[in-house]
Design brief:
By secondary structure, the protein is of the alpha/beta class. The protein is built from 6 helices and 8 strands; from the N terminus they run H-E-H-H-E-E-E-E-H-E-H-E-H-E.
């Protein structure tokens, strides 16, 4: 894990993240003798400016859609992911789902819901409908790229609970890539051990405390 000075904005964060990722890719090439084929996957909307690292890494940019969408003038494809919201606090993720059908639930011991099964079903169906709507809207305009044997660099502007990026990584692993990397400018230090189980490499620039 690398530490950098305070990041000015998401573009600056992307530049700093690109430098670290580029160094890791270069070292991997030296160590293995095989040059990785990187593809950047962004989690919009906020992750897209950070994922401008694709330009600096000279590789295609694709988008995993979560929340609202940003459009970029670059090669584009999508995998749709959406958080499953806690009924009493829509900003709090109790899980996440992709349009691939991958579902990841948070530790339910953290939540005390009446009629838990009913709430979970309602929240899940709402998230699934959002992913399907976004996929139907965006995929006709997206260039389909082959991720098989590529190094998929999954980028968000910051990780709080990790649910969305984790379920997105789960979906990407079904595409037979060489590796899936979870990359972000900022995440809680305490979350890093949990994040590492979802990808082949985790790159985080800063772990401020308190987060």
């Amino acid at each position: 894990m690398s530490h950098t000075p305070l990041l000015a904005d998401r573009t600056h964060a992307g530049e700093e993240l690109a430098r670290v990722i580029s160094d890791v890719l270069t070292q991997q090439t030296i160590d293995s003798g095989v040059k990785p084929v990187p593809i950047v996957y962004a989690l919009p909307r906020e992750g897209v400016p950070v994922a401008a690292i694709a330009r600096l890494l000279n590789c295609p940019l694709t988008i995993i859609v979560a929340k609202k969408i940003s459009f970029l003038n670059c090669p584009l494809t999508i995998i749709v992911a959406k958080k499953i919201s806690y009924p009493e606090n829509p900003e709090l993720a109790i899980g996440a789902v992709t349009s691939f059908g991958n579902v990841l639930w948070a530790d339910q011991k953290l939540f005390r819901l009446k009629n838990d099964a009913r709430w979970r079903e309602v929240a899940l169906n709402k998230a699934i409908n959002l992913t399907k709507s976004l996929e139907a809207l965006l995929i006709p305009a997206c260039l389909q790229m082959n991720p098989e044997d590529a190094t998929l660099i999954l980028v968000d502007d910051g990780i709080a609970t990790g649910m969305t990026i984790a379920v997105a990584a789960t979906a990407l692993k079904t595409l037979s890539p060489a590796a899936v990397w979870l990359c972000t400018p900022v995440a809680p230090q305490t979350l890093l051990p949990w994040l590492e189980q979802w990808g082949d490499r985790t790159i985080v620039l800063q772990t401020p405390e308190p987060f």
